[in-house]
Amino acid sequence: MARTETPRRIRGTQDIFGDDQRRFGHVLATFERVRALYCFQRIDIPVFESTAVFARSLGETTDVVSKEMYSFEDRGGDSLTLRPEFTAGIARAYLTEGWQQFAPLKLTTSGPVFRYERPQKGRFRQFHQIDAEVIGAPEPAADVELLVLADQLLRELGISDGVTLQLNTLGDAETRDAWRAALVAHFEAHRGELSEDSLTRLEKNPMRILDSKDLRDRPIADSAPDIDAYLTLEARAFFDSVTAGLDAAGVAWERNARLVRGLDYYRHTAFEFVTDRLGAQGTVLAGGRYDGLIGSLGGPETAGVGWAAGVERLAMLLEEPQLAGIDAVVVPMGADAEARATGIVADLRRAGVAVEMAYKGKMKARMAKADALGARFAIILGDDELAKGAAAVKALDTGTQTEVAFADLAAALR
Ligand code: ATP
Ligand code: MG
């Protein structure tokens, strides 16, 4: 009979442990701290939605909807999709929960998202995003606040050196229509040189050709007309306020006139924070304004702007994370001391002291455990200490040892 095989991890998923977990947790904790400084509220939304939520808000022709979604029929016959991103679900929640009454709303969330992509460094099938959105604010100040938040997050993570903010405008509806016509004329003139994918894009969404990574498309994309000549006065003024706000806040940016976001609903501001330290997966944080999204979901026309960042990509850029360290390790020697140590450890933990018990091996192995855990103190308990009602407390950095009564341990360690 064949032996049962141990189960495998699904391709493109991760079991995040040890050093990786410390990096991962540090990104999330820093995001949580910084979003509170900017007065953004945390929300949590479902991991799956009706497939239509993503298909309608992202657009059927996007890579995410056409190739990358994890969609399935549930037992009731409904078509559901594991979220490939947060914005569509947040917009859906805004409508179904009647959050219009709280607008403008500044929201953040984080968690796993799912895309069927070819796994490689910095690219997974289940990955994690942090996400920030402002809904119901048509003013450029909202774009600026989100960008300054992103910039502060990268600074506090210590990774802002070598990460550049690239900024573009996609204009308002009038601008987009005029620019689109100019792009179509340009691409039509070079039809014969475009890749097959770009010929499809030319029919469905010509702007995406600008984004193409295919080398055949690059010269044609690079010589395409910029949006600047087509900006309406309003669209130009909007972009100018965003850049003036960034300058006032001391956030460096670069114009990238080729930057278009892959999704249909983007208007005005589009941006990416990019680095050359992650190879082909160089975009760490990306977003823009999506004033058309909530309308496309059947809601009232509502302004929105936001960004998402890959937690794994941010974590990969971090310096070697410091071991958090703990306050103390209790080292009991002998059966009586071990019995007593159980109570002491429980009391210390209830008093808010982070302690571990070392109960395996000889004295030397137990002290080594205290070092490995980065403990500040070792609390040594033997028969002598039990008789005295006081433990030997050794400071592991200096090696000095003092006697501390059991009752005073918590106060001495805090
Ligand atoms: P890319 O061009 O790398 O595919 P994208 O434009 O699809 O990125 P967005 O939809 O803007 O990415 O998602 C926001 C962020 O999520 C990205 O900037 C990146 O940091 C992260 N991200 C996107 N796809 C993946 C993935 N498959 N694995 C890990 N992180 C990802
Ligand atoms: Mg992608």
Quickly list its features.
binds magnesium ion; BirA Bifunctional Protein, domain 2; aa-tRNA-synth_II; 22% strand; alpha+beta; 5-stranded mixed beta sheet; 414 residues; Rossmann fold; 8-stranded mixed beta sheet; histidine-tRNA ligase activity; elongated; single chain; binds adenosine-5'-triphosphate
CATH class category name of the largest domain: Alpha Beta
User: Judging by the overall fold, what is the CATH architecture of the largest domain?
Assistant: 2-Layer Sandwich
Secondary structural class = alpha+beta
CATH topology of the largest domain: BirA Bifunctional Protein, domain 2
Radius of gyration: 28 Å
* Whole-number mean pLDDT: 93
Shape: elongated
Subcellular location: Cytoplasm
Catalytic activity: tRNA(His) + L-histidine + ATP = L-histidyl-tRNA(His) + AMP + diphosphate + H(+)
Subunit structure: Homodimer.
Family: Belongs to the class-II aminoacyl-tRNA synthetase family.
Q: Can you tell me about this structure?
A:
The chain is of the alpha+beta class and 414 residues long. It has two domains: 18-172 and 232-316, 2-Layer Sandwich (BirA Bifunctional Protein, domain 2); 328-413, Anticodon-binding domain (Rossmann fold). Strand 3 (70-73) and strand 4 form a beta hairpin. The protein has helices at 18-37, 51-58, 63-68, 87-96, 140-156, 173-189, 196-204, 218-222, 233-249, 293-296, 311-317, 335-350, 363-372, 383-388, 409-413; strands spanning 41-42, 48-50, 70-73, 79-82, 105-114, 126-135, 163-169, 254-255, 267-275, 283-289, 304-310, 326-332, 355-357, 375-381, 390-395, 401-405. The mean pLDDT is 93. The strands form three sheets. It has an eight-stranded mixed β-sheet. Strands 13-12-14-15-16 form a five-stranded mixed β-sheet, with helices on both faces. The termini are far apart. The chain is built from 15 helices and 16 strands. Residues 85, 115, 117, 122-124, 127, 129, 262, 281, 283-286, 308-310, 312-313 line the site of adenosine-5'-triphosphate.
